[in-house]
Design a protein that fits this description.
Elements: E1 3-7, H1 11-23, E2 27-31, H2 34-43, E3 48-52, H3 60-69, E4 76-79, H4 85-89, H5 94-103, H6 113-130
Parallel strand pairs: 1-2, 1-3, 3-4
Helix pairs in contact: 1-6, 2-3
């Protein structure tokens, strides 16, 4: 299964996601802020990252850029309880947004942990299909 990193300042959400993902067979590390999350990702490359938009020390979308600048090019699922569709276009060019749209299906809401498990499975599937085959 996957090595998943959850970066969110809401302790209850962090722990609940960790428990749900571990029950599904994944390894899950949790961090409460951007810098700790970045350090965790740099120390052991995750297969998938969940990152909250509103972190105490940084914007989750900026953290996404920092992850990429360190060569951490894994699927990142940005989560928030306070987002808008307009937020999506802020860090992305039209080409990147179109590419993203073509590779993923957005869910309107993120209320149930089984949705998190479905999104995780989808992201892991995309991760494996995006890698070149060794045959």
């Amino acid at each position: 299964m996957a090595n998943i990193l959850v970066i969110d300042d809401e302790e209850n959400l962090r722990i609940s996601m960790q428990l749900a993902l571990q029950r599904a067979g994944h390894t899950c590390r949790i961090e409460s802020n951007g810098q700790a999350g970045l350090a965790a990702a740099r120390s052991k490359m995750p297969d998938l990252v969940f990152v909250d938009v509103n972190l105490p020390d940084t914007d989750g979308l900026n953290l996404l850029g920092e992850l990429r600048s360190y060569g951490i090019d894994v699927p990142v699922i940005v989560i928030t309880g306070f987002g808008t569709i307009a937020m999506l276009s802020r860090p992305c060019s039209k080409v990147r947004l179109t590419t993203f749209k073509n590779r993923c299906r957005w869910m309107k809401s993120f209320f149930r942990f089984r949705d998190a498990l479905k999104i995780t499975a989808c992201a892991i599937s995309l991760m494996h299909t995006a890698k070149p085959s060794s045959a």
